[in-house]
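Entry 14. Ran structure prediction on the chain below.
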Amino acid sequence: MDYDFTHDIYGAFRAEFSMGHEALGYWITYELRSRQTVIAELITVVSELQQRQRVDYLMEGAEYNLRLNRDEAEVRAHALDSEFEEDAPEDNLEFYDQESTASCGLDDFIEILEGWQDFTAN
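Output, structure tokens:
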């Protein structure tokens, strides 16, 4: 998984992730933002998960939820949990949802959080 922390044309913080992990970038950029206390809290939660002091954790966001367990971090768009029965695609078609969900291991996730914490602190 490749990622880069940059600034947009207005100077706002932006996280860009490689294909298959775009949802992580969106979640970090628009849900987590540069909230240092929340970032620090998440680093603590990940540590507790790794030390088996906690089983799981859920952070509900405006458009995406972050779900952590002892093995991985998953970002999932609320839209994926909506009912689409009336608008269901034809039998040979599927909804495109690859940019709406992403996951990674806890070691990678804590590395991302610490990098984002450093990047947004300056």
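Residues 106-121 form the longest helix (16 residues). Will compare against last week's run tomorrow.
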